[in-house]
Queue: 4 jobs
Job 1
Amino acid sequence: MSASTTEQAERRNSADMRTNAWLIPIIGVGVALLVALLIDLLFFQPTIDQLTPMFLQLGFYAWLSVIIGFILYRLGWAYSPSLTFAVSFTLILVGVLTLVNGGVAAWLMFADPTSLTVVGILLVFSTMIGTAFAVYGFSRTTRSLRELATVAQQVADGDLSARAHVPGRDEVAQLGKAFNEMAAKLEQAEVERQELEQLRNDLIAWVSHDLRTPLTSIRAMVEALADGIVTDDAMIHRYYQTIRADVLGLTALINDQFELAQLGARGIKIEKVLVSLGDLISDTIESVRVLAEQRDIELVGEIGDDLDAVMISPQGIGRVLTNLIGNALRYTPDSGTIVVSAQRIGDEVAVAVTDSGPGFAEADLPRLFEKFYRGEEARTRAQGSGAGLGLAIAKGIVEAHGGEISAENVPDGGACVRFVLPAS
């Protein structure tokens, strides 16, 4: 919808509201006229000749009141500088109309000027007392509205911690409560925005670093090969192997970012089939066993006897296992141990990957599964770096299965990442 269309719609809505608002006094005057005539019929039972003059008189003053109110509204009543002024003016107008109508009625009933004066004094006195009490009763509402306006300006100026104190249970109090809830959500959204901005800045720095290092290495080796600096066949083969490894690393980094983008956009598709989780764990262990043996790391699989086939996505959970075991390999020192265990617990299955490495830094534990988060320990590892995506991807896949994932340090040393999935 364009801006002009929106403005036209707002003007139509405003006009409709003004039209509907003027139905209130018109209907009120009509009802008042009808009630007055019914009371007259009930108590005095006048003839049609007696009823007609009263009907005409009441009708005349009723519509005169509507016309006077409309004229005052058009002259600026609707643009009153304050609600207190508007209410006071309204009550004074009601009092004036009451005085006029009451005075005319008294003049018709009493020929004595003294009686007319007494009735007029009583009407003036009653109108002033009613106006005073009405303004007093409305003052709390105006104070609450002024406070709301002040706090709203503070929020507009950037102070999202500002809150309005509006006591009571009326509509203004409900407005104050809704405003405070809105301000709280805005404050939370601002905190999340700042955190996201920081994560975005970190991501740019991390990805730039992770791309620059292998690209620099690839460029240097390609130039050396192209210029004929390296002539030894064994060294040439080694260069090609290193270039291939760097390209595979870059491809994995790009794939991680693409998959994480899918998770964030809820675009990942989980197609569950009945799979032997024990076989999936064994296959994943075997796929990295060569890397583990190169560093003399022992890989152990502990599969429970009651671990039947479960409904999972083999590709998704396989990716989770690969990420967790790969992460454990980077953390585990040479000659260490990695244990992958799985067991059934009621209607769920629990899988844990435990390593004998240094464990997680306590400050990192609450944020391990955040997108792009990398603790200082992870960034200084000699065994490679990443953009902090592996655990975030694992978390997204596990939650897409309706499960939960967590991490903790093992009391005897090392780290344990554990996820729980529904068995069906």
Job 2
Amino acid sequence: MGLNIEVHGLKLAYDAQPVLEDTNFTVDRGDLVALLGANGAGKSTLLRCISRILKPNAGSILLEGQELDRLNSKEAARKMAVVPQETTADFDFTVEDIVMMGRFPYLSRFQKEDSKDREIVKRSMEMTGVSHLAERSIATLSGGEKQRVIMARAVCQQPEALLLDEPTANLDIGYQSMLLELATRLNREQKVTVIAAIHDINLAVHHFNRFILLSGGRVMAAGRAEAVITPENIRKSYGVPATTYRHPLHGVLQVSVVRGPNPEESHKDGPVVHVIGGGEEALPVLELLSQQGCRLSVGPVSAQDSGCRFAHFHSLPVVIVPPFTSMNGALKEEHLQLMRDSDLVVVPPIPFGEGNLPLFEEVETALDEGKPVYIIDLEGADQRDYSGKARQMLEGLVKKGAIVMEAIEDLAAVVCPGGGLENE
């Protein structure tokens, strides 16, 4: 089961405007492939060429080494099933009638479906969760229900390859997940090759294991997520600055489009703020202060920390320490200097363990030297303290003059919108 698909030198133009330009790639049997790329990159056009809806101006498409053009329509339909982006309902067919159409490639001109065909239709509707709609007219269904019916028809077709043209467009997250889970299940259980044009990269990486990134009708990158979904590739193909990170629950690669540095931001004249530590807990602090026009520094953080990625993306001064190690003398001095160069120091609601307790000594030094220090959410420190010592040390800083803030949003009242410190 599964289908090997090769695309060689594919070219296609609409009204002399190139859409596909020398497109080349190979999809192996049983691959689970997402086609990525900005609008107009050629994703849907490419799928329509593979499904024979469009005829390319040049190039070839091979199925198991055989020219696609040499197959008749029934032979092609037994090999490939298509779920289009939009489903029209011009005729008043029932759901069961629509799904039964998936058996047509296996029937001769005047042959009627038999009990085997009806059993396949039944299983296909059960798999896609539309059995209860069997007698309903397709015209009466919602968009998500129609997509499930078309998916059931494709399953009923028993293809070796499934082509999905942005099947999740205009669907809510429940239908999106269900359709892609179905495609994944067909791939896993029946080894069906799946190629899907997907506009949501973060949705794609949860369901697919190989990726083809198109740009200007050409393949920019192909392979695993780590090789294809990079900040540089996203910037080149989508034209936006982005950063990538691992999802904290699933571990899969994710993309975040970030408001990047620009010439106006490079001339910020707000206060200089040093933000202690990093991690997800520090990101809201960094973003809020950045929006207030502050000039920021960060640290100490590890190279893989989200705070470190924020700092690099915005070209901020940052102290980087190796993971699972304490800062040496040079790094301590570098960190202390960043605090000395700042107008104030912020301690976000970060977790505390034995590894970052030495930070308190440096913050205390900055406090003793007259640097304003703001501690966010002191009351919640116990829940974030894995050392059993952090709460006492934070209260020690408060006794020396550190200011406690209940929430991150309270920083906006400290940093004036026009730059500078309130009550300075």
Job 3
Amino acid sequence: MHSTLIVYSSTDGHTKSICNRISNSLDKNNETEIVSLDDATKLDLSTYNKIIIGASIRYGKHSKKLYKFIRLNKSVLDQKQSVFFSVNVVARKLKKDTPETNPYIKKFLKISNWRPKKIGVFAGRVDYPNYGFLDKYVIKFIMFLTNGPTDTSQSYEFTDWSKVDEFAKELG
């Protein structure tokens, strides 16, 4: 039996939903555990065969805790079958929806100095009704600048779930 750890860093919960989808698509011979980034800091990563880390973008950045986690665990991550994926709304755009073309993946690889064995990027969700006042209007302004949806009465999911499923199948 193989063991897989899936770690998520999520602001609004969408990255965790993607992690759940990946977990459900993995080979049934995998024993899978899904934990938040905060909980993952308490685990012995060396006991897992595969480590998948999924992280969302908020205001153009991955969490500082994510970079710290990777820095502290880089030697173990380098020895394992390690996987990283980013969830961001920029990935809704053609030519920004692959690891090679997504600006947040490029920035992540440069800052983290980590080279996962596999990398993915998925378009996220804009969930205006569930945002606080400040987040709602800052994100609305960002969407306006990037030709995205600005009706704050609605949620917009850009995730291509078939792409998530294909990514998971490739992981085994």
Job 4
Amino acid sequence: MKYKAKKSLGQNFLIDQDILNKIINTVEVNNKYILEIGPGRGNLTEYILKKNPKKIYVIEKDNELSLLLKKKFEDQIEIINDDILRISEKKISNEVLTVFGNLPYNISTEILSKWITNLDKYIWFDKLVLMFQKEVANRIIAYSNTSDYGRLSILSNWKLEIKKIIDIKPKSFIPKPKVDSSLLVFSPKKNFFDLKNAKNLEMVTRIFFNQRRKMIKKPFAQLFKDPQKIAKKLNIDLNLRPQNLEPEIYYKIVREYEFLRS
């Protein structure tokens, strides 16, 4: 069964065997419950099966590909023919999942943001092994005081430990994307700042980074009636710029904002 990649779904199929091997050897798979996002034609799925997982769930939005996967793997995998953004990840399995995903680049940050936002005391995964456009990966892993640092870095570091594994060239895919990719591995943090609502973190960081080159006096004044008092309490210099503040500082600002409105 031949299948042509659909541009509208951001499909680029990984075919490089060396890279597939590196991905599968990044985390433990044997006897684990696996979730694969966007398996495409099942290239990585084959490698996962060789490592003897306990069970594999795959989420594939494309109807044609779902049929192809069913024909190729039969009962070796459980296929969920749906959109990952519409699925409650906690309802896929009662077991803790190890997640692999060559994410469609057009919705990759949306998927990651959804998972971070929904992650609470119940941890539904032990590892996320995810591929991103390299530029997006750089923003996820960026440190403060760098040009790539911003809202995505702060959100990602809130609940997750992140490690970059490898950069991947376009020639490793069919069709070739126009950009390099990067593989990242995420592990849930045991302890993270307990904020009431993730939307507050998104709102606060948006206010700060809308004017990333200006001093943080203005966003502080937008958020607090007495910005000087809050800045002093949190030991923050209002002459700094948004990229100068460590992620932990933003979590403290959000917690203060929520406290004052409770």
